[in-house]
Amino acid sequence: MNKRIHEVxxxxxxxxxxxxxxxxxxxxxxxxxxxxxxxxxxxxFGLIFGIVLLFRLIWGFVGPNYATFxxxxxxxxxxxxxxxxxxxxxxxKIHAGHNAASSxxxxxxxxLGSWIVLSGLLLQGIQEGSGIFKELNEHYFQFSSSLxxxxxxxxxLLFIWxxxxxxxxxxxxxxxxxxxxxAMITGYKKAEGSDARxxxxxxxxxxxxxxxxMVTLYSxxxxxxxxxxxxxxxxxNFQAENPAFFEKCSTxxxxxxxxxxxxxxxxxxxxxLDNHFGEQxxxxxxxxxxxxxxxxxLLSHSAESSSHKVAFKTLxxxxxxxxxxxxxxxxxRETHKSIDKNIYHSLHVKDASNCFACHPDxxxxxxxxxxxxxxK
Length: 376
Ligand code: HEC
Ligand code: HEC
Known about the structure:
The protein has about 375 residues and is mainly α.
């Protein structure tokens, strides 16, 4: 016996919550991806999307009726019939379970979504050197650009797919008047079939997943370093690496890490010390032998030898150019173009070359985009 006449209870509360977590986490991770300084949130929402996606995959095998993959109708004939009926008969009766269109829709969301999450996690490891795949950074960083393209293209496809879904629901709601929009809120669908029954164990499983999503959000929001965001790059000890560099190149500004610029830029910089950004650096400041030692050190630790994102992005964007300042690097300009120019001249920043003001621990070789902050 159904609880309501003409309506079927299809979605228990836990399923509805998970549906909305899936929708909002995808849209929020999509939206935050356009801002590097929101990277931490992009990651958090992406992870949550991954968790609920995995849940939905498992639910497809062990969930209640209407949710399992074995009830999906996937033949092309049925898909065609669905659309023919939809066009020809505005007041057609619908079945409570997945029709051919929604079966295909769900499978494509799960397929695209899994690849987006997987490519995202790999990208985090390979490009940023952080997260569960951080060890892959050292050997595979040259794949980050192609991985990024894949991650982006799939995400746009899923975004378009989500828009199609919304349009479909609105057509059901306002043209066919099947109350589809409210069904994901109340759980009741105007359709034919019998009410869904969800066992205690399934309820527990679903609520555990909801709990896990909340814990993920909380831990990423409250901490810079969780095992999901931890970087493989540790603070460098430049004093031990090269004492002359550590001592002499930090008298006027904090240390710029050697991986920041290419080999030939360091050659130019070290050969032009007599006019170093308007400063004259002579042998009485840095002796000849110290200069040689610093130069050799910088050349052997330049961008070419590094798997830091800033190093390969810089090299990639420079082409033949070999500037001695980051603000001349196209990649740098691109990533900083959204920043208000006045901020650079504010009290705490003073100049665009003062990377240290907005990138904490940059002088120790740390450039982590979960930690960017603009001083007020
Ligand atoms: C006024 C603050 C500020 C200064 C100064 C600054 N940055 Fe940034 N930087 C930012 C912000 C904010 C972002 C993120 C921009 C965005 O959201 O796209 C960023 C992004 C970056 C990124 C990209 C991060 C990533 O993982 O994609 C790199 C690399 C970087 N900065 C390096 C530098 C270097 C090197 C310097 C010094 C030459 C510097 N920045 C100076 C604020 C600053
Ligand atoms: C006498 C002071 C002085 C000393 C010593 C000095 N610098 Fe500089 N350096 C400057 C000034 C001034 C700038 C311009 C940017 C600024 O105001 O911080 C600059 C800028 C730079 C930049 C460009 C940053 C950017 O991307 O805009 C690099 C790289 C750099 N210095 C490396 C070195 C190295 C390597 C050494 C040691 C061999 C060194 N500096 C020693 C004064 C100095």
